Amino acid sequence: MTEENIRLSKLLSSWGFASRRKVEELISEGRIVVDGILVEEQGLKVDPANVKIEVDGNEISSDKAGLQIFAFHKPPNVLSSLKDDFGRKTLSDFIKHLPRVFPIGRLDYDTTGLILLTNQGELANKLLHPRYKVEKEYFATVSGKPLTKEEMIRFSQGIELEDGLTAPCTIKFVKENSYQVVLREGRKRQVKRMFQFFYLRVESLVRTSFGPIHLGNLPEGKLRSLTDKEIRNLTNSISV
Ligand code: URA
Which residue positions in the chain have pLDDT lower than 70? Predict the structure, then answer.
């Protein structure tokens, strides 16, 4: 042990991961592994420069002054918020061990797919700001008469919704009643309202990517840390 070694709870709270008390709870619950060994001792000291810490199997790092970004696969019937006065399931039910992160934007209650979570408000604001035109890709299954070629062109060029003209987007026919849509803005219920404009009802909607981050095969209800490369790509996508 060197003089630089500090208590695990202090280290994780200094990284902005969780309060010391919360880290102590996580240790009691047997959810933290350090250098491959389950932590059982509250006062464990570690070397911040040379330690591998995992919480519920997700590696936690101090990378970029405490910046944490996670990808979460939102199941249906889960609110994209951290609490609900009516007792419905929220993101908090899945991320109890990450008390200081919040979602970057929202998906509807019934929409599934990729939600990014972070502990940095500034990054979240930029990723959501229309100025940066971060692409969000959706896979929509709809009911109703398939869109004609002309309607697809109109859809992609911009249509007038009650909150104004939509920005140019991309739409591709995938199969039967399914379309891939890529938006560069993020208004409330936008994909559903755009199909509704053509009298089509969205039966299921999945967000498959957010900027350069892909949902991939992350199982529903599961969380993973972004890799350093993904974090770099994401932050580069909002640098001007
Ligand atoms: N568009 C929608 O209609 N719903 C979502 O959840 C996301 C985009």
Answer: 1-4, 14, 16, 62-66, 97-99, 239-240
Residue 64 has a pLDDT of: 40
Give catalytic status of residue 108 as yes or no.
yes
Any idea what the CATH number is for the domain that residue 99 is in? 3.30.70.580
Burial class (CB in 10 A: 0-12, 13-18, 19+), 132: middle
Give the length of the chain.
240
Q: Are 83 and 89 in contact (CB under 8 A)?
A: no
Instruction: Write down the catalytic residue from 47, 56, 63, 108.
Output: 108
The finding on whether 80 has its CB within 6 A of some atom of ligand 1 is no
Q: Is 111 in the pocket of ligand 1 (CB under 6 A)?
A: yes
Q: If we measure between CA atoms, which residue out of 137, 107, 100, 106 comes closest to residue 121?
A: 100
pTM for the whole thing?
0.76
109-164 confidence digits (pLDDT tens): 999 999 999 988 888 888 998 888 999 999 999 998 999 999 999 999 999 999 99
Q: Does a structural domain hold residue 1?
A: no
Segments forming the whole domain that contains residue 56: 6-65
233: phi then psi, degrees, rounded to nearest 5: -60, -40
Distance CA 15, CA 91 (A): 22
CA distance 95 to 113: 16
